[in-house]
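Researcher: Please predict.
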Amino acid sequence: MRLSARVEIEIINTGSELLLGRVLNTHQQFLCRRFTDAGATVRRLTCVPDNGAAIEGAVRDALACADIVVTTGGLGPTSDDRTRDYIAGLLGAKLVVNETVLSRIENWFGGRKRPMPASTTIQAQVPEGAIVLLNEHGTAPGLIMEVSAGRFRDAQSWLVMLPGPPRELRPMFDSQVLPWLRNQFPTSAGFVCRTLKTSGIGESRVEEIIAPKLHELVQRGLEIGYCARTGEVDVRFVARGNGCETIAIEAETITRRLLGDCVFGADDEQLEETVVRLLTERKEWLALAESCTGGFIANRITNVPGASAVLWGGGVTYANDAKVRLLGVREETLREHGAVSEAVAREMAEGARRIAKSDYAIAVTGIAGPSGGTKDKPVGTVFIALATANDVQVKRALNNFDRETFKYISSQQALDMLRRALLAAHAGK
């Protein structure tokens, strides 16, 4: 069962630390994604500091327009956690102690054999008449309050208050808020949001290839969106109403056919997950020899569960001496071509594969900057080598970005090079 797309939702994130740039606001993406997957659309996002005028003003404005208003943060025990108090005052609701919440707070500290500061009991004070959402991962409960018609607008609305820490907010939203919302706003209207992830092709080129072939589906209600990310482009399909699943499937089928192996995954799948899956299916091993990426490729691969079945290991051979002693790169190759060169990348990959006796080996060497570049090899130059039992392929790229972006894009290019090689090697098998 999905939420009605006609339900108007607003999200208000409270927290001065968010506006100061000291904490990354991940709530917006998480909540918008959850609402979208449920078939509803968020109409507005707002972020306000921890003061009464800002919080009350944002909530008042939102309740005048939206069916559901979600606030995050400000439910804890410290002096800047005042969202609960301000909203209770705005709605004219009396704060009362909830004995269940108070008992859970006491048990939380007792179970950890920690002294309970007196200030933590303020979290047990909830607006009279509110639905209490018990916190399985902390002490501050979530709250749901009904706002009657006529108070801020002609129709009834609901206010949902969630704790700020993501490890508390996310499970509370999934296990308690979403079921409540689906029960409160049942609908049979269909909704599909599907994303295809591509690499090795630009955003404009993607649109140029697929848009003409999807025109008929657009006439039937398909919405297409493009999002250029670091080293990849997302293609998003949205369809609503009767037949939406069929429209989305047709769009995905056409796009996969047109873009071919540029498509590496769907929805939340990462390129490293695709590579690990392909290696696992083929029972093949990978070794790594990284210089300019500093182990970032290994980090991405080992973030994937099951990577131990396909990653033999590797080395961060940053210095020339490490390339010689650990990988067997010849000193004359380094003298003649330099550490950042096709020849050295080739020998690094060959050495890694020889030592590991692996099916594949990736090597990366480059100039991350901001200094070290030359006319022939400017900052951002990178050589990526892929060694197999049959040959060694070497790709040269220019990734003239900051060091962190340089490392990410170079790792993306290396993983995509391996992915395409895996697909080509096993085509038709």
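Model: The first strand starts at residue 2 and ends at 3.
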